[in-house]
Amino acid sequence: MIRKRTATIVSVQALAAPGHYVLTFDDPETARDARPGHFIAVGATTPANAGSSILRKPFSIYKVDPDAGLCTILFSVYGPTTSTMALYKPGDKLDFLGPLGGRVFDADPQAAVHHVMVGGGYGVPPLNFLAKTIKAANPSAKVTLIYGARSANLLVGDDGLREAGVEIIACTDDGSLGVKGRVTDGLAPLLAPPILGAGGASGGACVYTCGPTPMMRAVAELCMAHNTPCQVSMETPMPCGIGICVGCVLKKADGTFSRTCTDGPVYPATEVTWQ
Amino acid sequence: MAVNLEVKIGSLTMRTPVTTGSGTFGFGSETKDLVDLSKLGAVCVKATTRERRLGNPPARMCETASGVLNAIGLQNGGIENYILEKLPYLRQFDVPIIVNVPGESPDDFAYVARRLTESGGADAIELNISCPNVSHGLDYATQPHLTAEVVAAVKAVTDLPIIAKLSPNVTDIRPIAKAAEDAGADAISLINTVIGTAIDARKRTFKLANKTGGLSGPAIKPIALLAVYRVAQTVNVPIIGMGGIMNATDAVEFLLAGATAVAAGTVNFVNPLAAIEIADGIADYLEKNGFTDVHELIGAVQ
Ligand SMILES: Cc1cc2nc3c(=O)[nH]c(=O)nc-3n(C[C@H](O)[C@H](O)[C@H](O)COP(=O)(O)OP(=O)(O)OC[C@H]3O[C@@H](n4cnc5c(N)ncnc54)[C@H](O)[C@@H]3O)c2cc1C
Ligand SMILES: Cc1cc2nc3c(=O)[nH]c(=O)nc-3n(C[C@H](O)[C@H](O)[C@H](O)COP(=O)(O)O)c2cc1C
Ligand code: FES
């Protein structure tokens, strides 16, 4: 159920990573309904003062606290919407549509597999949500986050994962933390040979990825080469987020165009073409 | 005091003067959680063609200053898919349906119009002779005789009201509107998008895969208002005005320029309830300014 909301902002915090913020808002229904992979479309410019930018912009759900009725997003400042959001104060209103997304991450917490999240930049927050959801449903599930950035200070979105028992592998271009190199350098050793899964049973990996398109492409191609199932969460620009503009499409392997906002944003890697 | 918002577009009665702009509201069902369609003046659905169309490759849209460029390329499932898959949802609501029809030949337009008429699939047909994103689309609305040819071909196969949707990408829109009226159009809608492009300096590429697209949103409002004003001076049939309408004040300006009804287009991407809220806002404007009927506004600025 998509709702149009004007929710009260509870907090806006700057992260150590320059230009990155987490914003928490009060909306019990979204906190209850949102699943990992869902997003919201934030309108930070109103029709009444339509300035240079008029469209809503999509942001992944990062955390939910259904008991407190709170939801959190993580964003980095690029343009008009995110610049406005960075200036919000507790008590201000967040205008959004949500939860959005027709197909979200599909993970079976009980499966004897190694759940591997591979993320970059603002692609990490939905994976954090997914990792915690799997762990909450099955504390003995084997869950790993591999995330990357140019440098250690730009790694974001890992909040609470260690405490939840998720293994974390950082990859940095400059080697300032963890593996020196890309997320695929962190991922490759996990894919071959087959890993011992939860409960000691032999199980392969299931990969879930979200981040810049070139990164997801590399992850998807590596997984396909290893016959490893991989789900990708596409981050094409989404002018409406609700299926009415047909502007957000992805070309699928069967040649048709799919609306990433309502048919996605999550797709099996085998369905995606990369241009 | 209640004010009258009801208007007529040919034989079509609209409860409020606000419809949706084709291509900016899907086929109605996408917003089922948010919008009660029976509160709209009419629903104008996405372009529906004779055969299924896949549309243009991405990137199809980008944001520009106070506007949006799009090159969707008329992605749709075709007329039979519309009748089977889209129409049943729309018909659950007491609201007139306007189907937007593009085509590559007068025969294409007539074929879809005939199927819509036979199936009860529309209450009015909007001829999209002005889409800038496909070849053989724009061409018709650039020449009076081609416009007349399409209108006449459709007139011959249907009794439904025919709305000719015109393009601003012409030297003078007036002779084209006149040709549409003379050929039997019951109304004129304007404007379709304004052709343009956007370039990415960082990647040194066009931002749209199609290179060019149609500009919509507040950026084109002055162009649209002038087109409405000029055509209102030229024809006697009603005009549906659109182009950058974001709120009730914008809509009132179009009525004052001579539009009988208006369409909420790009604003739906920001607020899918816009067509309903704009109609409420027009009612407020009428009351606050001592009017009782929306017709008192139509063409009041000369
Ligand atoms: C499903 C989905 C989920 C998303 N989740 C998040 C999230 O959780 N957190 C988050 O911060 N962002 C997220 N994004 C991306 C975010 O929606 C965009 O970055 C958005 O465009 C920012 O809006 P803006 O108005 O601030 O900037 P815009 O005006 O849209 O952007 C200004 C300029 O910067 C460029 N630009 C925008 N974003 C980027 C980028 N990421 N990298 C390089 N150039 C860019 C644009 O092309 C434009 O030219 C998500 C996108 C999608 C599709
Ligand atoms: C994404 C998009 C798709 C559109 N598709 C169609 C279409 O299929 N047929 C049509 O006649 N007009 C189409 N239009 C044009 C609109 O109906 C309208 O004429 C135009 O956008 C101007 O109004 P606006 O500024 O309020 O959006 C489209 C516009 C947009 C932004
Ligand atoms: S963003 Fe508009 S259809 Fe997907």
Automatic annotation (TrEMBL), chain A:
Entry-linked InterPro entries: Cyt_c3_hydrogenase_gsu (IPR012165), Dihydroorotate_DH_ele_sf (IPR037117), Dihydroorotate_DH_Fe-S-bd (IPR019480), FAD-bd_FR_type (IPR017927), FNR_nucleotide-bd (IPR039261), OxRdtase_FAD/NAD-bd (IPR001433), PyrK_electron_transfer (IPR050353), Riboflavin_synthase-like_b-brl (IPR017938)
GO biological process, one term: pyrimidine nucleotide biosynthetic process
The keyword Zinc belongs to this UniProt entry's keyword annotation: no
Pfam family, one: NAD_binding_1
PROSITE patterns for this protein: FAD_FR
Gene3D superfamilies (UniProt xref): Dihydroorotate dehydrogenase, electron transfer subunit (2.10.240.10), Nucleotide-binding domain of ferredoxin-NADP reductase (FNR) module (3.40.50.80), Translation factors (2.40.30.10)
Cofactor note: Binds 1 [2Fe-2S] cluster per subunit.
Domain of life: Bacteria
Cofactor: [2Fe-2S] cluster
Residue positions binding [2Fe-2S] cluster: C240, C245, C248, C261
Gene Ontology molecular-function annotations: 2 iron, 2 sulfur cluster binding; flavin adenine dinucleotide binding; metal ion binding; oxidoreductase activity
Family: Belongs to the PyrK family.
Designated name of the protein: Dihydroorotate dehydrogenase electron transfer subunit
Protein source organism: Armatimonas rosea
UniProtKB/TrEMBL annotation, chain B:
Catalytic residue list: C131 (nucleophile)
Family as reported in the entry's similarity comment: Belongs to the dihydroorotate dehydrogenase family. Type 1 subfamily.
MF annotations from Gene Ontology: dihydroorotate dehydrogenase activity
Record-annotated Dihydroorotate dehydrogenase catalytic domain positions: 5-286
Cofactors named for this entry: FMN
Localization annotation: Cytoplasm
Name of the featured protein: Dihydroorotate dehydrogenase
SUPFAM superfamilies associated with the record: FMN-linked oxidoreductases (SSF51395)
Record function comment: Catalyzes the conversion of dihydroorotate to orotate.
This protein's pathway: Pyrimidine metabolism; UMP biosynthesis via de novo pathway
Chain segments annotated as coiled-coil in the UniProt record: none
GO cellular component: cytoplasm
Gene that specifies this protein: pyrD
